């Protein structure tokens, strides 16, 4: 019995000791869970009051880093630019800047070129990165996308250079011709010849200055401030009248047709200039004794009814590489022909800006040696459609052209001498 009692007493003591040890272990575990750890300080730091609100309204891409270089807060723009990936700052130069700023507290700024995500074309994003300390442990990174600003700056720089070159040519020619007139003062035939050349150069200079003014106006003005319903028939007639002399000199027949009584909502002067430029280009780049056709029709688009005005020529055509650049300012498909016709290289740029500012677009179809078709697509002014439109030379079922080309000159047009 004494042995059994001893065994029972030992078992009781062991049970009590096990319970005490378990309770102490539980208390120690709770204390450790409540204690701030190094890991928790890095993963869940608290932003200073108001910082989260300020970052949400900034236009710049914002990233907040903690002591372990982990991202505490990042704007959606930062993810879109590819600055943050997997909770880490993915741009090594910016990460080095953040570490240096965390070490000495100095604000740093640098401009970088970053690879553009998802394009695979080697294009770069130009950004300006600024790093500043945020409290005692955090670092704030602000990144501004400068890509568009750089592009505009390059375009403006090229534009100034091109304008200087284009103005220098006729001005230099006028200077030389005036000297030639003075030297040939005793030769009436030479004076007449040089004076004629001076008139040509003066006209070219006047046209260049006027088109620069027109381009500046369409870029800076809001055409819808003075918008009104504009009849397409009147625009076509004005464009044809503008080019009547050039077309007659080359024996080019100008033909108009399509749907009548169409109206476009916009600035009449700008629309007339845009269509006039297209018709003038068609005449200038067409061989003698060919045709230039102008057709208008109504088309249905997801955003509403559009009016298409197509200008078709039988000229030299445009190559695929040139089609990507013909709407650039001062770009010419055939510089030699442009010098002969007095072209400035601004006409199609004006057309593009007018179309865009009126909520439309301009497109081109062309085949080398076969001609070109430029098409203006602009929103309709909401003209009444209570009577059937008058068609001329368009397919009765589709309203499209009757030939394989997008808009061939109409087979039975109104021929304007």
Order of helices and strands: HHHEEHEEHEEEHHEHHEEHEEHHHEEE
Count of DSSP strands: 15
Strand order of the largest sheet: 13-14-12-11-9-15
Which spans of ≥5 residues are poorly predicted at pLDDT below 50?
36-44, 383-417
Globally, the shape reads elongated
Query: What is Rg?
Result: 37 Å
Distance between the termini: 138 Å
The total of helices stands at 13
Question: Mean of the pLDDT scores?
Answer: 76
Coarse structural class: alpha+beta
Could you estimate the helical fraction of the residues in percent? 40-55%
How much of the polypeptide forms β-strand, as a percent range? 15-25%
Mind summarizing the main beta sheet?
6 strands, mixed
Task: Characterise this structure.
By secondary structure, the protein is α+β, with helices and mostly antiparallel strands. Helices cover 46% and strands 22% of the residues. The protein contains 13 helices and 15 strands. The strands form four sheets. It has a six-stranded mixed beta sheet with strand order 13-14-12-11-9-15. The chain has a five-stranded antiparallel beta sheet with strand order 2-1-7-6-5, with helices on both faces. A two-stranded antiparallel sheet has the order 3-4. The longest helix has 37 residues, at 147-183. It starts with a helix and ends with a strand.
